[in-house]
Amino acid sequence: MLPDPAFTNELNVAQCRELLTSDTPPLLIDCRELNEYAFCRIEGSHLVPLSNFTGTAEAEFANKDTPAIIYCHHGVRSLNAVFYLREQGYTHTYSMRGGIEHWSLEIDPSIPRY
Fold first, then answer.
1. pTM of this structure
2. What letters, b where the CB count within 10 A reaches 16 and e where it falls short, cover 7-32?
3. Residues 6 or more apart whose Cβ sits within 8 Å of residue 20
4. Which end of the chain is more exposed for a tag (fewer CB within 10 A), N or C?
5. Of the residues 16, 31, 40, 72, which is catalytic?
6. What CATH number should be reported for the domain holding residue 41?
7. Is 72 an annotated catalytic residue?
8. Domain annotation covers residue 18
9. pLDDT tens, 7-61?
10. How many domains is the chain built from?
């Protein structure tokens, strides 16, 4: 179950894993750059680089209520992406706290760290 977006912008990696393995998983958006995505990624993620997020991200979402988790390397860019999307009216967007770095450390150590 998604947390109330009025109370949080971020989810920890355990919460993200729980949501991503649920019967109705949210979109998983990687907002890093292409070279980072080519090096490593979380399976099932879609690349929407923050450098061209404006306009491109909206195309990923068919509906402003579509749940999504956004991640980057450490969680800073993804938090900025969430703030942007929330300003555009996307209500159920969350940043993965700690990004792919924490995901690799706590969930899937097969993902290379950099």
1. 0.91
2. eeebbebebbbebbeeeeebbbbbbb
3. 26, 28, 44, 69
4. N
5. 72
6. 3.40.250.10
7. yes
8. no
9. 679 999 999 999 999 999 999 999 999 999 999 999 999 999 999 888 888 887 7
10. 1
Residue 40 domain boundaries = 27-106
- Asked whether 111 and 17 are in contact (CB, 8 A), the reply is no
pLDDT of 25: 96
CA 71 vs CA 3, 30, 114: distances in Å: 17, 5, 15
| N-to-C CA span, the chain | 31
Q: Left if phi > 0, otherwise alpha if psi is -120 to 50, otherwise beta: which for 83?
A: alpha
Is residue 16 within 8 Å of residue 86, measured between CB atoms?
A: no
